[in-house]
Every structure is written in structure tokens, then in C-alpha cells.
Amino acid sequence: MSGHFTAPPPERGIYCNRTLNMRAIKAIGYDMDYTLVHYRVEAWERRAYEYIREGLLAQNWPVGHLAFEPELVIRGLIIDTEKGNLLKANRFGFVKKALHGTRPMGFEAQRTEYARTIVDLSERRWMFLNTLFSLSEACIYAQLVDLLDEGKLPGPMGYSDLYEIVRRSLDAAHMAGRLKAEIIADPERYVLPEPETALALLDQRNAGKKLLLITNSEWAYSVPMMHAAFDPYLPSGMTWRELFDVVIVSARKPEFFTTRSPLFEVVDTGGEALLRPYSGLLKPRTPYFGGSAVELERHLGLSGDEILYVGDHMFGDVHVTKNVLRWRTALILRELEDEVRAIAAFRSTEARLAERMVVKEQLEAESCQLRLELQRRRAHYGPRSQMPEDELLSRLTAIRTQLEALDAELGPMARAASELSNPHWGLLTRAGNDKSHLARQVERYADIYTSRVSNFLFASPFVYLRSPRGSLPHDPNLPGGTPVFPSTDATSGPNP
Q1: What CA–CA distance (Å, rounded) separates 387 from 389?
Q2: Rounded to an integer, what is the distance from CA 300 to the centroid of its chain?
Q3: What's the pTM value of the predicted model, to 2 decimals?
Q4: CA distance 248 to 478
Q5: Which residue ranges in the chain fall short of pLDDT 50?
Q6: pLDDT digit string (tens) for 228-279?
Q7: 344 within 8 A of 427, measured Cβ to Cβ
Q8: Do 52 and 137 meet the contact criterion of CB atoms below 8 Å apart?
Q9: Angstrom distance (rounded) from CA 10 to CA 443
Q10: Could you give the CA distance from residue 393 to residue 383 in angstroms, rounded to a whole number?
Q11: How many CB atoms lie within 10 A of CB 69?
């Protein structure tokens, strides 16, 4: 009997790094912001940016003319707080592209600055943009570096000092609660409706999974956000509170996963929420404040790979849960949808680029052999051909002409490839021809990744997600760079 299953479009797929049997998962924990609740990124980050700017204006900084630039920064970049640079690094930590402030660094300047530097995120110097919430602070920091270089900011001050001031300004805006108050008052302006998420969680709950909400947001903010995101789409009479077995707010992730903090019961009086110290097993339909993952595991009677945690923050949600608790992990990357669509739209150009690169590599290989032949001939050693020297030189000149023509053809295609999705930084997951530092983090810490929680609808709570076979440069039938012995036939595979 045929079913009614419809495969999702590629951009809504669930991508698997490590095989995950959803039937073995007994509990699923969810972050809230940018996981269960998706924001209109530009609207939120523009407003956050404006609050930082207001704080600096109050200190008489000349920033009134600055404006949020959405394309200047993407998730996964790294701020070099010592040098005032925005960087994109590859999976090995080598810097592939850099801006000083908002200005692109030339090849020689970038090479001078970073040729001997490997980005190690454990060092205080580097700030990794883990989440979409980082975009506003990184944007204004880059703009302020320009002003600092022009001598327009109060001093003396270094690039690290400047970053700390930006961070404090953003923290002050969040602490004041004005931004969140605006969002609560007008959620439609800031929140993207996602009706399918409620159904995806209902499927999981009715399949026997315990559902957990573990968020750093406070109770007063979580209630209206979860109400707006879920209640209109749940069965009549049901609210989001009944969907979750455990609700923990102000969780202080990543410390929630690594330390033991006091647990408080949230007593919602209808006005201001009160906190009451609590110990013992968690009560159903009761929200809690703080606590720890160890306490939660004890309450659930579950641990390790029986629990899946779903979040958008690379470090606070998936890195720590994987490293410390060995929970299974899912990363939400909303930008993945644009990324997959951009890659698909570029496929025909990419095929042409790959085809011409094969020709380029063959010509380069022949050029190398001709140069070696000339070297041996002039130094009188090793085996040599009978081809006259003037013919060797003539062939080398012809190859050089062909390569120059090829480079003129390849250049625009390569530039277009480097600007997919973003004119400054290109694709989120690529750095040149390699994986980006973000992609390496995703690969290392996220068992699965997808663009939104509602994509679980396409998979069902019973799916067995299998990772693809890992590839290496020497694997057959996979692009892997220039082989040691380039084939003269571009269509042939390795010899048997």
C-alpha cells in the first residue's frame, strides 16, 4: 500500500553527521529563541543595534550617523579583538578572508597579518559569532573600528577595549529589558509565525517522547513568546504549557550543562512571577528557574544518548551538551535554507567551473613536466626526451597563453562562487574551496542539523537518520582536489 509521504524540498531537509535513531530518543529538549521561536533577523538585530548606538550616544560618542548593515556580518565569523578585524577561517583555523573594521584587507596585508596565525577559539583574543544574536554587536564593532582608526573616539583605547565597551552596551540594553518589552508588545513585527512546529512537537509527544523547554530567557518573556508561537496552532483548549513535561527558564546555559546551580520553582501570580527554592522531583506543569542538567537527568531517569537537545547556539546548545553530557544534539541553522537554494541555483555554473578546472589542472601538469625536462636538460642529469629545446619552449609559451585565457574565463565564475548568499563572505559553510570554521563546528558537535524544528514533520518521530559515508581526497568518484597523477581523460575514474 503506497503512503502519502512527500519528500521535503532540499532546504527543509534534516542533515545527519552521526547516525541517529529517533526511536531510541526518550526525551527531546528545546531552546526557545531562534529554535522554537524564530525572529525576523533583520528587524530584531537592527533594533538591538539601535539600542547599542543609543547607549554610546549617551556617552557622547560620534555614532549618530551609523546604521545597521545586514550584509556586513554573518554567523560563524570570528572577531579578532586584538586587531579589530572580522575574519572567516577554514576548518583548520587558517584565515581565508578578513575585514579591518568594514574595509576588506588586501591579499598581502592579510598574509602579513595571519600567515603564521591559526585561530584557536579557546584563546580570549577570538570571539566566535555563535548565533544570530551576535550580528548587531559585530556590525557596530566593525564600524567603530573605522572611527577609532580615524581618531574620532575617546581614548586612549585599543581594539580589545572597544569590543568590551560594545559588549557592555548590548548587555545593558538587554538588562534594561526595553527590547524584549517591544517584542512582547508587537510580536508580529519581530516573530516569524511557524504553525507547523506545534504539529511536529505533538507528533513527538504522542510518540512517547518527553518534551523539555530549557531556555535562558526569563519567565516573563518566555510566556508571551511561547503563547504566540504555539497556542493558536494547538488543538482547541490546549496550551503550550501542556505540551512540555518540563519547563526551565533562566537556565544560564552553558553553565546549566556543566555546573550545579540552585533550582527555584516559578510561582506565577498572574502579575510578577515569584521564585521559591525547590528540591526533589520536578512537578508536572510547573515551571522552574535555574537548576542543572544533572538534576534534570535524575528527574527523568534518563541520561546521555537517550536525550536529544535542539538549539541554535553553537557553543551553549550543542558543543557543551555533546562534550560534557554526551547528549545527542541538533543544531538549528535558519540560514541553511538560503544556502541550499543558492547552491542549487549555482549548480550549472559550478559544473562549468569544475569542467574548466580539469582542463586547467591538465595544462598545469603538462607545464610542470616541461619545466622539469628543461631543468634536467640544462643541468645534464636524469632521463630526458628527444624533443628539441625550442619546441619545449614553444609548447610552454602556448600553455601559458591557454592558461591566461582560462583564468580570464574562470575568474568571474570563481568570484560569483565566493559571493553566493553574501557579497562579503559568501556561503556560511564554505571558506574558499574548504569547509568553514563554522562547518567544522557543525560537523564536530551537531549530530544532525536543519533549518527549523518543523522539519521534523518530514522525518517523523520514528525515523532512522543515517550519516553519509565520510569522504577523503583519495576516495573514488568524489571531488577531492588535484590527484597526484592527473588523468589525461577528464571522464575516467581511477585505474582498477
Answers
A1: 6
A2: 31
A3: 0.89
A4: 46
A5: 1-2, 480, 482-496
A6: 999 999 999 899 999 999 999 999 999 999 998 899 999 976 667 789 999 8
A7: no
A8: yes
A9: 19
A10: 18
A11: 16
